[in-house]
Amino acid sequence: MQRMQVVVILGSISEESNNKKLAHYILNRYKDLMDMHLMTLNDLPMYNEDLESSLPEIVKEYKNIIRSSDGVIIVTPEYNHSIPGVLKNAIDWFSRGKRAMVRKPVMIAGASTGMLGTARAQMHLRQILNSGGVSAIALPGNEVFINNVSDKFDADGNLIHQPTISFLDQVVSNFIEWAKKINS
Ligand SMILES: Cc1cc2nc3c(=O)[nH]c(=O)nc-3n(C[C@H](O)[C@H](O)[C@H](O)COP(=O)(O)O)c2cc1C
């Protein structure tokens, strides 16, 4: 069977980001299960309807990458109880013109230094994914909330909290099985 092509969107543009560590951990640990491409949002311009008539090259490129993928994994921090502006900005671009995320299977994971592990941001994200322009399909249940993240990675960026690793393994496995059904 053909391997799934998955885009991993990183919702933080911080060099020292905890979610960057999580995204890299996912890219490494599950590389035998699917082909993954890391999408960073550092260079995306701010969404502006005036630019829609001649889309910036990077927007065209990112939309094509997403459109031709079999699924998306969004790894995001929580900023002030919601998703970071850079992630919302990217989704706004993807929702316009030839919409890039329609019926795209999406898995969500997030890490925060707080107690709730991005739970509130992920609730907002699910709402956004469900909007008409986006119309992506978020994996039901399977909520990867990594709280108190400073205790869960070592200095080299390895996830060292075994219950979190086991849970992530299960969610990724669920995502692959479910996404294949959505795409079939
Ligand atoms: C602007 C800002 C807002 C934040 N708001 C929240 C929040 O609402 N909930 C939370 O758990 N952590 C919050 N934090 C702390 C983040 O969980 C923590 O900085 C995390 O490491 C950010 O993810 P990153 O390292 O991947 O960029 C906030 C941090 C910043 C910079």
Write the layout of secondary structure elements.
Layout: E1 5-10, H1 18-29, E2 35-39, H2 57-67, E3 71-75, H3 85-94, E4 105-111, H4 119-129, E5 137-138, E6 144-146, H5 162-183
Parallel strand pairs: 1-2, 1-3, 3-4, 4-5, 4-6
The site of flavin mononucleotide has 14 residues, from α1.
Structural class: alpha/beta
CATH fold annotation: Rossmann fold
- Order of SSEs, N→C? EHEHEHEHEEH
Number of helical regions: 5
Give the tally of structural domains.
1
CATH class: Alpha Beta
Portion of residues in helices?
25-40%
Indicate the CATH architecture. 3-Layer(aba) Sandwich
What's the total count of β strands?
6
CATH superfamily: Flavodoxin domain
The parts where pLDDT drops under 50 for at least 5 residues are none
Radius of gyration: 16 Å
List bound small molecules.
flavin mononucleotide
Shape call: globular
Mean pLDDT: 97
| Biggest beta sheet attributes | 6 strands, parallel
Question: What is the strand content?
Answer: 15-25%
**First-residue to last-residue Cα separation:** 12 Å
Descriptors:
single chain, alpha/beta, Rossmann fold, 15% strand, binds flavin mononucleotide
